[in-house]
Write a structure and sequence with these properties.
The structure is a single chain. Helix 3 packs across helix 5 and helix 4 runs antiparallel to helix 5. It contains 5 helices and 2 strands. It is elongated. The protein has 199 residues and is an alpha+beta fold. The protein has a domain of 106 residues.
């Protein structure tokens, strides 16, 4: 009798443990409201971004890097890859949420048998409901999927940072290469003047 009570208590404990809800991921349909100070900073940043670059004058290195970061497709692709990976994390966290599947079906059959001319009609219909909910996670496969998605986000964040750095280095290299070429042209013109004077 004690074993029966113990078995009933253990089964009840497992069922009650399944009723405990895990921490739910943030809802993607609910817009996030940033703090007021962050919102003001964002407004200032957007106001700066909408300003048009004046290409009729010589641009400084900082302005050139800003133009490159806004228009380079590599930075845009790296940013979108990082955002897509962040949504993959939310999808992996959804494995812990319950799923409900509802079905409904109906069928009508008519049977005719000869030589007795027996005829019959049957109608079947009915709804169905299926609920799936993870109670015990043996082996940690779903937790591992969430961690793998998180590590992918971290890796793509580093890739995005590296892409920004590569764009900045390319702009700086081209900028100082142009300055060096202009100085070389000025030096060559001075050599031509010196040669003409010597002649």
């Amino acid at each position: 009798m004690k074993r029966v009570h113990f078995l009933v208590a253990a089964t009840s404990a497992v069922l009650l443990a399944g009723c405990v809800s895990p921490p739910t991921p943030p809802n993607t349909t609910t817009p996030w409201t940033p703090p007021k100070d962050a919102l003001e900073t964002d407004v200032v940043w957007k106001a700066i971004r909408v300003q048009k670059t004046d290409f009729s004058r010589t641009l400084a290195l900082a302005e050139l890097t800003d133009v490159a970061l806004q228009n380079n497709p590599a930075t845009r692709k790296a940013w979108n890859d990082a955002r897509a990976a962040a949504y993959q994390v939310e999808q992996a966290e959804g494995y812990f949420m319950p799923t409900v599947i509802g079905t409904a079906g109906a069928s009508r059959n008519k049977t005719t048998a000869k030589p007795d001319i027996f005829s019959g009609t049957t109608t079947q219909y009915g709804p169905g409901l299926q609920v799936n909910y993870l109670i015990l996670n043996f082996g940690g496969g779903r937790s591992a999927a969430v961690q793998a998605a998180l590590q992918t986000v971290y890796a793509l964040d580093f890739t995005f940072n590296r892409t920004l750095q590569e764009v900045l280095v390319a702009v700086e290299t081209a900028y100082y290469g142009l300055i060096s070429a202009q100085a070389g042209v000025a030096a060559a013109e001075s050599n031509v003047k010196d040669a003409a004077t010597a002649l």
